[in-house]
Amino acid sequence: MTSINLHVVIPCLGLEALTRACLLTLERALQKTPSVTASVTLLDNASPFVFQREFFPNDLAIDIARLDRQASFSKACNLGATRNGDADFYLFLNNDVLLHEDSLVDLLSCQRDFQAGITGMRLVFADSTIQHCGVLFDDGDRGPYHTCNKIHTSLVPRTPRELQAVTGAVFLVKRDLFSTLDGFSEDYSFGYEDIDFCLRAKQLGATIACAQEIDSIHFANTSYNETSMKRINQSRMVFMANWRGRFQIDGNRDEL
Amino acid sequence: MKPDGISLIVHTRNSSATLPKLLESTSWFDERIIVDCQSDDESVAMAEAAGCRVISTQHEFFTDALRNEFLPLASYSWTMVLDSDEYLALDAEDEIRRLVSVMDESLGGYLLPRRNFIVDRFMQGSSFYPDYQFRIFRTGQVRYQTGHHVMPLFIDDRYHHELVDFSNGVHIYHHNYNSLAEFMQKQLHYALTDVYEQSTTEFSFTDVIAQAQETFSRVFDPKSDGSLSYALASIMAWDKIMRGLLQWEKLGYQPALPDEYFSMVWTKKVDEQVVESGNDELHEQLTLLQAENQALTNEIAQMNQRLTMRALRPFHVAWSKLKRTRT
């Protein structure tokens, strides 16, 4: 089996306890992928309480990089990626995600099967309803949306599929593709930088796929505050200004 | 007139353990000068490999005073000074370049907040944070003083400095000590090599004890720093006493130490000792303090009562209404 050099970037703004849990699940998931050599950068995006190595009782070699002033989510991700320029893949991972121990096996297998430039992962809320199993695009003001959102995972098919976009919460991307596109656009303060990146990658002919076999937990907007929501709305306006009329309409497929 | 830009000057001595982090976080400076004080380790090789200009000098106890000799080497209009066990955040460049692009001609430099880590723990207590350090200044306008950690001064009085906002500004990161033993060793080194006032008339060991107590109270902040706060407060109070004794020794063991004060502090309660000492002045002060303390306690109790009454007022109103409805 070919060895893969994976660089995991976890941008963090607070949520120390969740981050610790996130890292523990990442460590377990990596143990199931012996072909992967992983490095981890925890990008502390000006958290009020400075992240320190002692918080994280993992055996993982964690590089903690700190920003003094809060940067956009995309800038934090881009800076995190620069910490290992030799990786084959970057895995951007939100710190409010708890990976299933088999999730990375599923993710890498989906990437391999589709020869995908970008691979996303099926994510569920804590109540086992779908948070993300792919991003679809509707017409009008709606634009991109998470398909099957809030539907119980047992009701949603588990066939891996190709899409126009996937969420950045767990985002596996080839390093070359990431470099060619100069990383995530820093025009977005929080949210939609992932969709923008996928659409730009699509323009270059990259394949985007989403692994569906395994559920990992993403607390998503349950861990957002009022400021996060404001920033998401700002990003949405930027996205629609940039992309409206330039993506393929999948239509309304909220229901099964 | 020096060209616009920022020179970084760092003094090293056997700094190979901490230097990589500093070198990595400062690669963006227009110029980096490493002044090495006879390191036996890899410090010089590391600095050279990172493209720094390396200058060797003799080892001096007073690094701060030694800095004056090398400040003129800075080629750019602004100078930043870091210690070899310090580093900057990933986004420091933008903020520091913004700071030095000021148009105010009388602004000579900045005090930067510093985050200190002891035993790998970020110390948040009042005496450790924000721990402002005067580290960025106009080249050629600042002079360091003799002694350890004495604030440097502007050569020209027309300059002033400003504080960088600690809530959202660039910081210096400082991993001070990996263990309490290392902390003690360093404190003792500073105490043994520092400069002390030579006048016997200025020396009072009672003041030294008071400083130690003041230091303990200032550093002791278990809410912020947990148990480590007890340990550090004790070491730093002890440091004050060590320094007092060292100064006393340099003064030829004069004046005599107030032995009754030692017995008072270490063996019995203060109030008992004051009464026993027969010192009327001290006794009067103690009585006044106790009265003030009692008055404050009463005031706090009354305030608490008023606040409680205010908080319960809506319930009283509701209860009165309920009673009226029932009758």
Please characterize this protein's 3D structure.
The complex is a heterodimer of chains A (256) and B (327). Helix content of chain A is 28%, strand content 26%. Chain A is α/β, with parallel strands linked by helices and 256 residues long. In chain A, strands 1, 2, 3, 4, 5, 6, 7, 10, 11 and 12 form a 10-stranded mixed β-sheet that branches. The model of chain A has no long low-confidence stretch (mean pLDDT 93). Chain B has 11 helices and 13 strands. The radius of gyration of chain B is 26 Å and the shape is globular. The N and C termini of chain B lie far apart (91 Å). The A-B interface holds A 43, 46, 49-50, 52-54, 65-71, 79 and B 89-92, 95, 115, 117, 120-122, 168-171, 173.
Condensed summary:
The complex is a heterodimer of chains A (256) and B (327). Chain A is of the alpha/beta class.
Describe the secondary structure blueprint for this structure:
The complex is a heterodimer of chains A (256) and B (327).
Chain A: E1 4-12, H1 16-31, E2 36-45, E3 62-67, H2 73-81, E4 89-93, E5 97-98, H3 103-114, E6 118-124, E7 130-132, E8 135-137, E9 144-146, E10 161-162, E11 170-174, H4 175-180, H5 193-203, E12 208-218, H6 226-243
Parallel strand pairs in A: 1-2, 1-4, 2-3, 6-12
Antiparallel strand pairs in A: 4-11, 5-12, 6-7, 6-11, 8-9, 10-12
Chain B: E1 6-12, H1 19-25, E2 31-36, H2 43-49, E3 53-56, H3 63-70, E4 78-83, E5 86-88, H4 92-99, E6 107-112, E7 114-118, E8 121-122, E9 133-138, E10 142-143, E11 153-154, E12 160-163, E13 172-177, H5 180-193, H6 205-219, H7 222-225, H8 227-250, H9 259-267, H10 270-277, H11 280-326
Parallel strand pairs in B: 1-2, 1-4, 2-3, 6-12, 7-13
Antiparallel strand pairs in B: 4-9, 5-13, 6-9, 7-8, 10-11
